[in-house]
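#onboarding

Welcome to the new folks! Below is a worked example of what a typical request in this channel looks like: someone posts a single protein sequence, and someone else replies with the predicted structure as tokens. Don't worry about understanding the tokens yet, we'll cover that in week two.

Example request:
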Amino acid sequence: MFSIGTNKKLKRGRIAAFDIPAGQEVCGRECKGCYAIRSQVMYKNVMLKRIRNFIASGSSTFITEASNELSKMEARRNPITRVRIHSSGDFYGQRYINKWVAIAKLHPGVTFYAYTKRLKEFNFRKLKGLPNVVVIDSCKFGPVNFGTDAQVMAWKNKGGFICPALKPKSERGKRKKGYTDTGITCNNGCNYCLTKAAQKSGVVFYKH
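Example response:
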């Protein structure tokens, strides 16, 4: 169910991810320019795994199956103790959210974190209240959490944290087109999204 390195940022930080399909049926919306939708259109095997996870997440055995897999990951010589819930997809129902509450309680040594656009649609109180879970509101500053330089700086002024993975290109103090990969990734140079501070402030990204 879990994959390690579903994207560059998670791979460098050795973070496992549980992904389900992105799109209207699961997310309740379809955001323009969605990276997750782009990857599942390009790669058939990616979409198939996300569909299998989606089906599994609705079963009565999901908590047990996910927990067993996490236990094996924790028992490795180089254990995985960071999990991104949904680098693709979102929380699609209250029962599903409650299952993650149960899973997180069974693995107090694992830090779980997730972005969601559905905080106002379901009750996340129990999940957000767990000490090893961080739930970040993707709609804290608007319908999406990525934007232009001006938008990102405006959100920063409202308390948002800017993801340091990219920085605007510049030359002698002048802004150039595009962004530079800083080499900083999740759990590798920055672990802000793994802290409760992110749950309060929100995290924003440069659109690229």
